[in-house]
Amino acid sequence: MSNPSPLVHFYDLSGPQPWSPACWRTRYALNYKNIPYRVEKLSYPSIAPLCQSLFPAMPLPRATVPIIQILEAPQCALNDSTPIAQLLNERFTEGDGYRDLKGVDEVRAYEDEEVRGLGGVILKWIVYDVFENALDGGDGSREYFRRTREEFFGCGLEDVVGVRGGGEAVLLEELRGRWAGLRERMRRDDGEGDPTYVDFYDAANVKWVGAASEEKLQKLMDLYGDDTFVKLMKKVEPWSR
């Protein structure tokens, strides 16, 4: 049986495997809703020119991935993972045979209140590992990533954990505090139920760590000394492709 024609064109960041947490959120949404899509990998230097082409009025700081183009009329393009999830729910409805992705309207409050600053802590912890392991070497992404992140942190990528994070032990303790909401949620969850977009938000960050460093992924899975992350990743596994 032939595969159905794609209804969405999904632009993901290049790399040996999917790694960007924002792009993983969109990948999870597409997979969960079972929307046929095709993937095109973008290098970091190619993001801004594509955004300028697709979104001529967009200021350059908003030139980011993920990006989707809906291929059926009315065709449209959008970047930013949570608005993308909202758009996918609006365009691909239960009435048309697609799952409704729950929790999309809750993730902003979750991000701003329960896990505020989580992404920044993770980035300090794994930024050098991302540079070493998650990026393609021949498309300019590694050079772009090093230059822009070293400008942001004001030090070499190799030094971020110590200079900006206070050391790995400090960063892990910060993660325990900032991700406490996930731990509480998983205490009430057996990992068998239907995932929400909030679950996909958390799982995307786990995927980010895993693509950067297997060693740090194991430390993350053991962060609380319980099955918090085991249950989370079991819950999202069917859509983790």
From TrEMBL:
SUPFAM superfamilies per the UniProt record, alphabetical: Thioredoxin-like
Gene3D superfamilies linked to this entry: 1.20.1050.10, Glutaredoxin
InterPro entries reported for this sequence: Glutathione_S-Trfase_N, GST_UstS-like_C, Thioredoxin-like_sf
Limits of the GST N-terminal domain: 10-96
Name recorded for this polypeptide: GST N-terminal domain-containing protein
Naturally occurring in which organism (per UniProt): Botryotinia fuckeliana (strain B05.10)
